[in-house]
Write a structure and sequence with these properties.
The complex is a heterotrimer of chains A (382), B (325) and C (321). Chain B is an alpha/beta fold and 325 residues long. Chain B contains 12 helices and 12 strands. In chain B, strand 9 and strand 10 form a beta hairpin. Chain C contains 12 helices and no strands. Chain C has a domain of 222 residues: MetI-like fold (Orthogonal Bundle). The interface between A and B is medium-sized, with 22 and 27 residues.
Chain lengths: 382, 325, 321
């Protein structure tokens, strides 16, 4: 198991290196001299241009530029952003990456769970109108023009119903006299969620492994208790309303991203279930006299889960693209929105920096999926 | 023949819906299994023997339908039970050893836990602690206790087969259906496991239904033999009688691959031709296109039943007694 | 092994022409069978009807422009609806889907764009499948180091978020329809398509006739393109469908974000609406948003549905028993 994970980590690191090379190739493959784009931007003052040229080694031969570039990537320095001058690219990314991680992670967890449960159910009801309608609905959600769908969500739930704010990250009026920076607060909130999830997950793991009697009740109880305590503590602080403001701005993007991404998992789960249902151990489970629900959940779905998790690798890229689109439509300033606005403003250092970080993020998520898979499939744990 | 048989199947008929039309897999089959008896069901693949085995537990795929017939287990018609009541019979009264034991264990759970799962489903079957019962079963099938907590992929083929047998024995069923129990194993392991299975059966006085395409396996394990062809039982009788003097030409053809019992006779070298297309069965006797003794009447009318003691067969041209000396 | 590799019996040498005839008849028969299966999936037929509908729209546009539509009014890019007093004008008899904020006829834009969507999708699909089958066949045929390099590269391609790549590229180089199709084709061809086609090619490579062709002195190029690639075609046709969906979708997103240098497209129509500030007035100005958005969604899903139906035809494990 450790050997397998080590092997995968090395592979991912190699992939990362290849990815960085591809980005360098892309940047340098464009027509004309790259140094013009970097150094001749009219928004930059002359001394900044000078620094830029030195930092990127633009007056050196290509292979030296490459070495400088690799060093820059490793140290996370991508120079100054044109459009956010005088902030550095690293600064802008440091502010926005946590947001996208939060959006992406929440939506992925929700959509995976939802897609898996629904796919499981429709596979079991093979045939008839349920299957037909869900397949069509699933395909429509999977292929719907995302900006349009996001727009309809904003129009319906924010504009017409007024339940949520229309786009943006926060409400500036509320934050005028705020005791702390929105980013600090957001990072604190994420830390809280992370710690609480780890505790709840540990309880789930222990109760399942040890086969504690009434594990189900302990699990649900601990989940509810953790949620109640967290909300209670945050509510009592003086920044509770500000935290809620951030959450309120996040609900609709998360919901939209969840809805557009669950369909892929659902359709895949259905196919995987249909293939697993033909296995002999499923027949054996039925022959043992297990109720249909136990056959479905304990045996078919548990095995059908494996290829679905494997394919998460494919859907990771899809979900990252999804959050890029959703962030732009919601004007929610995460990595995706940064990427798009940098591309529109021809802010090359920021666009390349954001893209490199998006790539690193996908690779790390890939590694996380590998770890999850090792946990799920005993055949890999040797 | 004292009292009612453990299992009495009458006129069982199973159809499959396929794209090409209705296919009759099992055609009006009747037989009985006494307590402690081992019935061997033999036939080529596709003759309906596996469908018959699955039909007894009502585990046929959705595309199959039991058209008519009765499956009486100690007088209770299993086909008339509700789905819930049927579940109480599965494994508890009738257990199964599967065709491909390699895949009959769920790869993501420990083998011991899969046996415990069956025990917990039928708590009334065994009063012991389930974990204790698993150890007892592992002793019975000669498996080491330290493999209880291993996963199926850590088992060898023979170990898996033993684990499957242990699982089938878990709830002390009255009848075990063994569908090609040893096909995937090499001959030596196959032989040893069959012998052990036979010993366990006699020890526990269980009934067993062996399903196989292999005459050698059937000869080794069964008291009574039923030969199936194109969905029908074409010959039935005590194993000793059937193997000594088979009536049906098909039985003789199956046995020709098996000379130690039939003696020196080699009138049929091998079985020629393909098994019949179930969508388009030959008229009259379904076996006539492949039968060396076929006459015109075989092509037109279903054959009559020929009896010799408890042994019987459906054939127009049974061998004369002089042929067998 | 040695026994199996013996060349097929050469006794009554059939002529190449008669062989071809037999092969053609066999292909026709399996095509007819598969068509029956395809029809029975229903969703595939829905997809096919939608595709045909848009194909008709695309083909009608030049005809309409040359007959009933006045070029000054109905040109999708530079036309202006002089006959309307306010822009954007709601649907009327002369403008069935109304006009956009710049006074251009929506229906004409919709039909004009449909053609470029088909061309884009077709080009991307052809590039993808050409690269995918070649890479897959080469990786499967040679194995070893070649296989490892190509498949590791494919892994990277699969992990790349395509839209983000396109966004960065649009900042680096100007991207038009042709480049877009090429980039999508390369990303998908070297990526997921190559991986899936390689696994299919592996099952072809072990077939005895490949061994026979090698024994008969066929070179690698001959074997790959004459014997392996044709056997991958049904599956690659399936991936063409999914590539078309991806290409149309990516194009729409990029032109919606204003990152694509195109004259007119469905995504650009929504971009225009957004730029003019009508985006949230969905109720009052529905014709500015719905026709283009629905067209993108429908055409994307139709190709996807056809692909899915083909998947059920090709992959018997998913078939209803």
């Amino acid at each position: 198991m450790a050997a397998y994970l080590l092997k995968r980590t090395v592979q991912i690191l190699l992939t990362l290196f290849a990815f960085i090379c591809i980005v360098f190739f892309l940047v340098n493959a464009q027509p004309g001299d790259i140094s013009n784009v970097y150094a001749l931007n009219p928004e930059l003052p002359p001394d900044a241009k000078q620094r830029m040229q030195e930092q990127f080694g633009l007056n050196q031969p290509l292979w030296q530029q490459f070495l400088v570039y690799v060093k820059n990537v490793l140290t996370g320095s991508f120079g100054l952003s044109f459009s956010h001058y005088p902030r550095s690219v690293a600064d802008v990314i440091g502010e926005r990456l946590p947001r996208t991680v939060a959006l992406f992670f929440t939506a992925t967890v929700f959509s995976f769970y939802m897609g898996f449960v629904l796919g499981k159910i429709i596979a079991w009801k093979r045939g008839g109108w349920t299957e037909y309608a869900t397949t069509l609905g699933g395909v429509t959600l999977y292929t719907v023009f995302t900006p349009w769908f996001a727009l309809m969500m904003i129009w319906l739930f924010a504009f017409k119903a007024g339940w949520f704010p229309i786009g943006k990250f926060l409400d500036p009026v509320l934050w005028r006299d705020a005791p702390l920076n929105a980013n600090t607060l957001f990072n604190r909130m994420m830390l809280t969620v992370f710690v609480v999830s780890v505790i709840v997950f540990a309880i789930f793991l222990v109760t399942t492994r040890r086969r504690v009697a009434g594990a189900r009740y302990i699990q649900i109880g601990s989940l509810a208790a953790a949620a109640a305590v967290t909300v209670g503590i945050w509510w009592s602080t003086d920044v509770g309303h500000l935290a809620w403001d951030l959450i309120e701005h996040m609900i609709l993007p998360v919901l939209t991203l969840t809805i557009i991404s669950f369909a892929g998992t659902m359709l895949l789960t259905r196919n995987s279930m249909l293939e697993t249902m033909r296995e002999d151990f499923v027949l054996a489970a039925r022959a043992k006299g297990l109720p249909e629900k136990a056959v479905r959940d304990r045996h078919v779905a548990r095995n059908a889960l494996l290829p679905v998790v494997t394919s998460l690798v494919f859907s990771l890229a899809f979900a990252v693209d999804g959050s890029v689109i959703i962030e732009s439509v919601f004007s929610w300033p995460g990595m995706g929105q940064t990427l798009v606005s940098a591309a529109l403003a021809e802010d090359l250092p920021l666009a390349v920096g954001a893209f490199v970080f998006v790539g690193i993020f996908v690779l790390l998520a890939h590694l996380a999926v590998d770890v999850l898979y090792v946990y799920l499939d005993p055949r890999i744990r040797y | 023949m004292s009292g009612a048989p453990l299992l009495a199947v009458t006129d069982l008929t199973v159809d499959y819906h396929t794209r090409a039309g209705e296919v009759r897999a099992v055609d009006g089959v009747s037989f009985t299994v006494e307590t402690g008896q081992a019935l061997g069901l033999v036939g080529e693949s596709g003759c309906g023997k596996s469908s018959l085995a699955l039909a007894l537990l009502r585990l046929l795929p959705e595309s199959a339908q039991i058209r008519q017939g009765q499956v009486l287990l100690e007088g209770v018609d299993l086909l008339a039970l509700s789905a819930n009541d049927m579940r109480a019979y599965r494994w508890n009264r009738i257990a199964m050893v599967f065709q491909s034991a390699m895949n009959a264990l769920d790869p993501v759970y420990r083998v011991g836990d899969q046996i415990i799962e069956a025990l917990e489903q039928h708590p009334s079957a065994v009063s012991q602690d389930p974990a204790e019962r698993v150890r007892e079963l592992y002793d019975l099938v000669n498996l080491n206790h330290n493999s209880i907590d291993r996963y199926p992929h850590e088992y060898s083929g023979g170990m898996k087969q033993r684990a499957i047998i242990a699982m089938a024995l878990a709830c002390r069923p009255d009848l075990i259906i063994a569908d090609e129990p040893t096909t995937a194993l090499d001959v030596i392991v196959q032989d040893r496991i069959l012998r052990e299975l036979g010993n366990i059966r006699r020890e526990l006085n269980m009934s067993m239904l062996y399903v196989s395409h292999d005459m050698a396996v059937i000869a080794e394990v069964s008291d009574v033999v039923a030969v199936m062809y194109a969905g029908k039982i074409v010959e039935y009788g005590d194993a000793a009688a059937v193997f000594k003097r088979p009536i049906h030409p098909y039985t003789r053809a199956l046995m020709s691959s098996f000379p130690s019992v039939t003696g020196e006779k080699h009138d049929l070298a091998t079985l020629s031709g393909e098994p019949p297309n179930p969508l388009d069965l030959p008229s009259g006797c379904h076996f006539h296109p492949r039968c060396p003794f076929a006459t015109d009447v075989c092509k037109e009318q279903a054959p009559p039943t020929v009896r010799r003691g408890t042994q019987w067969a459906d054939c127009w041209n049974p061998p004369g007694d002089e042929a067998d000396g | 092994m040695a026994v199996e590799t013996a060349p097929p019996p050469a006794a009554p040498a059939p002529t190449a022409a008669s062989l071809r005839k037999v092969r053609f008849a066999l292909m026709l028969r399996s095509l007819r069978e598969n068509w029956g299966l395809f029809v029975s999936t229903r969703v595939g037929m829905i997809g096919l009807v939608i595709i045909l509908f848009y194909l008709v729209l695309a083909l009608m546009h030049p005809i309409l422009m040359n007959t009933v539509w006045d070029e000054r009014i109905y040109d999708p890019v530079v036309g202006y609806a002089f006959d309307e007093t306010r822009q954007p004008a709601p649907p009327s008899r002369s403008h069935l889907l109304g006009t956009d904020p710049l006074g251009r006829d929506i229906l004409s834009q919709l039909m004009y764009s449909a053609r470029s969507e088909f061309l884009l999708g077709l080009l991307a699909a052809v590039v993808t499948v050409t690269i995918g089958t070649t890479v897959g066949a080469i990786a499967a045929y040679y194995g070893g180091v070649m296989d490892t390099i190509l498949m590791r590269f494919a892994d990277i391609m699969v992990m790349l978020p395509g839209i983000s790549v396109l966004i960065v590229l649009s900042a680096l180089i100007g991207v038009e329809h042709f480049e877009l199709a090429l980039i999508i084709g390369i990303l998908s061809g070297f990526g997921g398509t190559a991986i899936l086609l390689k696994s299919q090619a592996l099952s072809v490579v072990v077939k005895p006739y490949i061994e026979a062709a090698r024994a008969a002195g066929g070179g690698p190029v001959h074997i790959i393109f004459i014997h392996i690639v044709p056997n991958l075609l049904p599956l690659s046709f399936l991936f063409m469908m999914f590539t078309v969906t991806g290409a149309i979708f990516s194009e729409a997103i990029l032109s919606f974000l204003g990152l694509l240098d195109v004259r007119m497209s469905w995504g650009l129509m929504i971009h225009t609406t957004e730029a003019a500030g009508y985006l949230l007035q969905v109720g009052a100005y529905w014709w500015l948003i719905f026709p283009a958005s629905l067209s993108i969604t429908l055409l994307c899903s139709s190709f996807y549905l056809v692909g899915r139906a083909m998947d059920e035809v090709i992959n018997p494990r998913l078939r209803r028993l």
